[in-house]
Each structure stands twice: as structure tokens, then as C-alpha cells.
Amino acid sequence: MTIIYVDTLFLLNALVDYLLLLAAARLAGEPLRRGRFALGAALGGLYAVAIFLPGLAFLGRPLCRIASAALMMLVSYGGSRRLLRQGLLFVVLTCAFGGGVVAIGLLGGTGLTLGNGVFYSTLDLKVVLLSAAVCYGVLTLVFQRLARHSASDGELVDIKLFLGDRSLSLTALTDTGNTLTDPASGRPVVVAEGGRAGPLFPKEHCPSSADLRDPATALPRLGTGTWRGRFRLLPYRSVGVDRGLLLAVRADGLELNGKGQGPVLVALSPTPVSDGGGYQALIGPMDERGVFR
Predict the structure, then answer these.
(1) pLDDT band, residue 106 (cuts 50/70/90)
(2) Contact between 149 and 156 (Cβ < 8 Å)
């Protein structure tokens, strides 16, 4: 007879759920809201315990499992623009993790066991924690490589931005759907992760994460002195955002794969632009001469 300890059952499933929620968010390129992930994982751990309690076996039915997973994802990812994407990634990662556990069991290994739809183990908790961390690292690495865009097909390019005596090198994705243009010149706008743009600015003019989320309030404070006219507000529209504003800065120059492109307007995104961390900026398409149009 297998003895299942409630504390180990809760901690193990909460840990696995947390790592899977975190991995799905990383792959989706979303901000890592660790507090919400921890709350969602705790719900998953409580659900794993509840299934084994007397009179609650009905919670193991498919509809109850689906409802539990949906609640956990809403708690963890609710309000995200990529809720569906993160949810699908979480499901895929969970299936991959569960498949690995089953495969180990079939090979005669000992460790994590998948039973009644939840994970449990007879091993020392420290060993379980280490095993879960290794699984998380392997899954994240594999799925990042599968999702990452390739530079060999021209999708990824190296860009360098210049602002005064400062410069910043980034990897950019050539995005044909990026239709943002500079109203003054009509040229396309480079969209860069605001959190990566710090090296371009002196301390007193460096936008904070709060400034990026509320650019209208930040503009009067940032654009003072010799920086007057450097910053501006750029209106944009996207899926789920009818009317939004981005903080933008006029860079003195742009190099694209080592080729100068002249001054450019750079919009600073308050959220990551990458789906897996492989790039930090978006640019529009180039012509056959490699010129940023």
C-alpha cells in the first residue's frame, strides 16, 4: 500500500505547477508576475490534496480537472493580452512534463509518480525539488529553441541605436505587422523594450517602468533642459487596445546590420516584445538594399 503524505503532496504539486506557470509566461514573453503564479500554484496544490480526501473523489473527473486548470490559469494570467497563448503553453508544458514522468516510470526509474492525475513521490523532498528544477530548465530550454526565430532566414537583425554619446545594441525582429510611423517624417518606428533601453539615457532622464506605463505623466518631467523635444507621445492601436500611448525618444542614429540608417524614432514598450526572449525590439521591413523604409 502506498502512503501519501499531505504536506509532500501539496508542496510537490504546488512547486511543479509554479515552475510550469513560470515557464509558460517566459515562453509567451509576458511579465513574470511571480506572486500570482505562486497563488495559482497553491490552488493547484490544494486541488491535488483534495482529490485524495474522503468524499471528494469526484474532483478527479475530467470536467472538474478542466475547471481547476482554468481557475489556476485565470488567477495566474488573468488580464494578460496573451491569456490564451499562455494557457495553451501551460497545457503543452504540463503534458510534456507528465509524459516525462510516465516515461521514467516505464523505464523502471523511481522518483516522481503520476497517479490520479497528480504528482507524488516517496523520495526526500530535497531530491524532488532538485529534480523539478532540472525538469523546468530542460523544458524551458527545449521550448525556447523550438519557438525562437532564426537569424538565418532574415527575421532577426542586429541593430544599434545612438543617442548623444551613448549607444545600445539589440536584436530586432523584422515585423511586417509593425505599421507604426513617425508622424513628422513618415518613417517607420523602432519598437524597443523599455526595460532594455536604460543605457541610452543619463540617470535623470531614464524612464522608469512606471513612466513607461504612464507616459503622459512622465513626459513633462523627462523632457526638460537639453532633452526638451527628445521625448514625445506616440499613439498606437493593437489587439485589445483601441487607443494607447507609448513613450518615444528620437535617437540620433540607427545602424542595421552595421549599415547606417539615419535618425529614427524609438517607441519604448512597457512590456517584452519577444515571445521567448530571442529579441528585444521590432522593426518594419527593409527594401532590397537593406534600407529601413
Answers:
(1) very low
(2) yes
